[in-house]
Design brief:
By secondary structure, the chain is an alpha+beta fold. It is built from eight helices and 15 strands. The protein folds into two domains: 7-193, Fructose-1,6-Bisphosphatase, subunit A, domain 1 (Fructose-1,6-Bisphosphatase, Chain A, domain 1, 2-Layer Sandwich), CATH 3.30.540.10; 204-324, D-Maltodextrin-Binding Protein, domain 2 (3-Layer(aba) Sandwich), CATH 3.40.190.80. An eight-stranded mixed sheet has the order 2-1-3-4-5-6-7-8, sandwiched between helices. Strands 10-9-11-15-13 form a five-stranded mixed sheet, with helices on both faces. Strands 12-14 form a two-stranded antiparallel sheet. The chain is globular, with a radius of gyration of 20 Å. The protein binds 2,5-anhydro-1,6-di-O-phosphono-D-mannitol (AHM) and magnesium ion (MG). 2,5-anhydro-1,6-di-O-phosphono-D-mannitol binds at residues 92, 114, 117-120, 208, 239-241, 267.
Length: 329
């Protein structure tokens, strides 16, 4: 598979590697790619939407202007629900799972997604993204929330779309990580980053230092070490997980949103954010931990469960986690 090939061709070549494949996954993924392109076009026009009417008001055409994260959520559901490959979906923006059966044929996959991650950056023209995680289920099963509560190890596919200076789609099915860049003039994603590997050790640390007054001793000690002369690390924090993660994936580094005195369970969501990025980082040779163990091994007890997240270059994550294990009293 060579750099420059279209995502459509890449998906078909991948499918051919499995002669017994039904093509369901490829079809499901193709729907997802359409959702990505539509959301990307909404994000690209977000500034204009602001000029033509603020969220919650009417634009010059007399249409209701929606908040971009709500629009992304709706677009994702509408584009994915009718394909016949899914049984249900779960969105970070919605309390309960969304059943597709009844209206459309029921398939043997479920998908979890964060429609627009980095919501605080939407109104200020800073990169945001969509994160997704796909699980396989028994065909014809009456899906309940319990069917979603699986450890990250059971994901069959995970990825994200980053709406940055270019729109990129990065995903894994457990056979390496590949990145595709959208050429807006053609409307196609092209393979731009083949078999991504994260550097074993990086020079960047990403954490919200504004939370330092709430930090546990291990976090404070690790960040002190990261800032020391010997470590020579530099800080970068966008505040959109997907953007911070993507930069560290390509350049090497570590992202931390640990548990602290204020957010004792961390802030980020295990199933919409941590699990998919953990699958990707591990496939790229990196690591993801909650400070106690591997993210991918955690069995969720609820759909919107939060988790501490320490993710990135393997040596950096291992070093950071060792600081939580140092007795501090
Ligand atoms: P969101 O899904 O509502 O956008 O929240 C998740 C975001 C992440 O993208 C980002 O890493 C984090 O929240 C930033 O949080 P904070 O502003 O507390 O640093
Ligand atoms: Mg999010």
């Amino acid at each position: 598979m060579s750099v420059g090939m279209t995502l459509t061709k890449f998906l078909h070549e991948e499918q051919r590697r499995y002669p017994n494949s039904s093509g369901n996954f490829t079809a499901l993924f193709s729907d997802l790619v359409i959702a990505a392109k539509i959301i990307s076009s909404h994000v690209r026009r977000a500034g204009l939407a602001g000029i033509l009417g603020a969220a919650g008001t009417q634009n010059v055409h007399g249409e209701e202007v929606q908040k971009l994260d709500e629009l992304a959520n709706e677009t994702f559901i509408k584009t994915m629900e009718h394909g016949g490959h899914l049984s249900a979906m779960a969105s970070e923006e919605m309390d309960d799972i969304i059943h597709v059966d009844g209206k459309y044929p029921r398939g043997n996959y479920v998908i979890l997604f964060d429609p627009l991650d980095g919501s605080s950056n939407i109104d200020v023209n800073i990169s945001v993204g969509t994160i997704f995680s796909i699980l396989k289920i028994e065909k014809g099963k009456n899906v309940t929330t319990k069917d979603f509560l699986k450890p990250g190890m059971e994901q069959v596919c995970a990825g994200y779309i980053l709406y940055g200076s270019s729109t990129m789609l990065v995903y894994t099915t457990g056979h390496g990580v590949h990145g595709f860049t959208l050429d807006p003039s053609v409307g196609e994603f092209f393979l731009s980053h083949k078999d991504i590997k994260i550097p074993e050790k990086g020079k960047i640390f990403s954490i919200n230092e504004g939370n330092s007054r709430h930090w546990l001793p291990g976090t404070a000690l690790y960040i002190e070490k990261a800032k020391s002369n010997g470590a020579g690390m530099s800080a970068r924090y966008v505040g959109s997980l997907v953007a911070d993660f993507h930069r560290n994936l390509l350049k090497g580094g570590i992202f931390l949103y640990p548990a602290d005195m204020k957010s004792t369970k961390g802030k980020l969501r295990l199933m919409y954010e941590a699990n998919p990025l953990a699958f990707i980082v591990e496939q790229a040779g990196g690591a993801a931990s909650d400070g106690e163990g591997r993210i991918m091994e955690k069995t969720p007890s609820e759909l919107h469960q939060r988790t501490p997240l320490i993710i990135g270059s393997k040596a950096d994550v291992e070093e950071a986690v060792s600081f939580w294990k140092v007795p501090t009293a």
